[in-house]
Each structure stands twice: as structure tokens, then as C-alpha cells.
Amino acid sequence: MPRPQRKALPYDARAVARLLERQCGLASRRQLAALGVTDPDLRRAVRRRRLFALGSGVYIDSSSPPTDLQRV
Prior knowledge:
The chain has helices at residues 13-22, 29-34, 39-47, 68-71, and strands at 26-28, 51-55, 58-61. β2 and β3 (58-61) form a beta hairpin. Helix content is 40%, strand content 17%.
């Protein structure tokens, strides 16, 4: 039986990864929206534990280890 095809993301995942890398794994909802990430995309990423919501409109990449700089 053939494998189901993955749907292409509606945003540039590499651009999101670069943003998170530049900002110690942190990004705001507004910054992510500017890259084409929608609210349903954010909810999905949180549900799949790729991102964690830190506060109102602030997200942290699940693959980045917690640092003192992120807490600031």
C-alpha cells in the first residue's frame, strides 16, 4: 500500500527555523505570523510539542535547551 503524501506547509519552515535560531529558540506570535504561520499552525505545533507557549503570544522551540537568556 502506498504511503500517504505529506501536505506542503503553507509557510517557509526554514525561515521559521532561522528566526528561532537567531533568537535563542524564542519567537512572538506576530513574528511567526509575518512568516506566514497561522493560528491553526501554531496550535498544531503546540499540540505536537514542537513549540511551547511561554506566555501571551511568546513561543519557544521544543528542541532548544532552556537558557538563562530565554528567561530574560
